[in-house]
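User: Let's play a game. I give you a shape written as tokens, and you guess the letters that built it. Ready? Here's round one.
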């Protein structure tokens, strides 16, 4: 059965995870050119959206042929969440809203946000309900993405999933790690299966999908209704072509040689120029992607460094031309982690956060930051 998001069929049942500084208009278009699915913009703070922060208004742009327009919001106050969603509705800014309850970085959890919120079950429920109730009259589906919990001693995913379902979300996505794990170790796919058994709404799985066949295996082992792909597509937007083939039952997988990768790199930089409207800023933004694209290829450190310092398309073209274009794809890299990897760490929370699960109080000073996403 095809996964549905409101009136939109999601076939294949694949979602691009929001990634800060990555999933802008240019990257989403690059991925959409490879395959179908839902492509979510970078995380947006509700307070910045509500007060019309200029940086945020740039981040919530969508391409003219981008449908459905999918926006992820982060907030800790139900009132401000409703205000932000009301702006989305009244100004027709998006077709789908995803709520972030999975972020584990210190500046978010220390304010009680992201993966800290589900511990406060009443506050969590109030935020989700505020978004769903505000979006419902416009027919805009709301989904959530969360982690298993704060740490192994403070798991919340099953209860949070039921609360979100009762509030009316269209689906629940689970990154099968705790906040304390960050991006370390292996994702606990068994928890995805347990959540699927506990809920009636669709459940999407996230964590350690490095290849298209990993997605099929997750679906088979957990019974989940779809997958969320994050780090696996960094430097490999063609992963979405592989996913489309895998879900259609076709065996082919994209294995570009270095010359073909160079063409994708050039296309990515070009799309960034179109979005930024300024070549230097766009190519500077592109630099972070160089190591991901070249991962596993025998490219010398001097050429890698030069690409990671380029500031114009002409300079980038010259450097791309120096690559050994016939170099085959490094198959030894298949199935290997990409992007951020780090060690487990204690989750920084507001003082006394764990003491009262039923408090719906908004953390003090939690919504002062309107800096954007």
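Assistant: Ready! My guess for every position:
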């Amino acid at each position: 059965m095809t996964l549905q998001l409101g009136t939109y069929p999601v076939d294949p049942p694949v979602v691009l995870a929001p990634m800060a500084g990555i999933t802008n208009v240019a990257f989403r278009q690059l991925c959409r050119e490879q395959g179908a699915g839902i492509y979510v913009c970078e995380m947006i703070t509700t307070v910045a959206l509500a007060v019309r922060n200029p940086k945020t208004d740039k981040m919530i742009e969508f391409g003219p042929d981008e449908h459905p327009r999918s926006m992820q919001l982060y907030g800790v106050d139900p009132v401000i969440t409703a205000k932000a969603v009301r702006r989305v509705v009244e100004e027709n800014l998006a077709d789908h809203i995803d709520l972030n309850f999975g972020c584990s970085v210190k500046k978010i959890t220390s304010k009680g946000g992201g993966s800290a919120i589900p511990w406060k079950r009443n506050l969590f429920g109030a935020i989700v309900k505020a978004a769903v109730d505000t979006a419902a009259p416009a027919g805009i589906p709301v989904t959530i993405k969360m982690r298993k919990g704060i740490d192994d001693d403070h798991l919340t995913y099953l209860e949070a999933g039921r609360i979100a379902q009762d509030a009316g979300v269209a689906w629940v996505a689970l990154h099968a790690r705790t906040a304390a794990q960050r991006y370390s170790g292996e994702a606990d796919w068994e928890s995805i299966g347990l959540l699927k058994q506990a809920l009636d709404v669709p459940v999407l799985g996230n964590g350690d999908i490095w290849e298209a066949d990993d997605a099929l295996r997750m679906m088979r082992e957990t019974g989940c209704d779809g997958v969320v792909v994050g780090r696996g597509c960094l430097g490999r937007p063609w992963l979405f072509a592989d996913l489309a083939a895998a879900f259609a039952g076709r065996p082919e997988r994209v294995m570009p040689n270095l010359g073909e990768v160079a063409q994708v790199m050039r296309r990515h930089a070009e799309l960034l120029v179109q979005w930024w409207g300024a070549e230097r800023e766009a190519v500077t933004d592109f630099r972070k992607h160089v190591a991901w694209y070249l991962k596993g290829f025998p490219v010398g450190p001097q050429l890698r460094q030069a690409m990671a310092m380029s500031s114009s398309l002409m300079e980038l073209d010259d450097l791309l031309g120096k690559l050994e274009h016939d170099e085959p794809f490094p198959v030894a890299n298949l199935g290997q982690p990409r992007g951020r990897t780090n060690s487990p760490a204690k989750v920084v929370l507001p003082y006394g956060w764990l003491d009262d699960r039923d408090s719906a109080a908004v953390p003090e000073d939690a919504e002062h930051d309107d800096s954007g996403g």
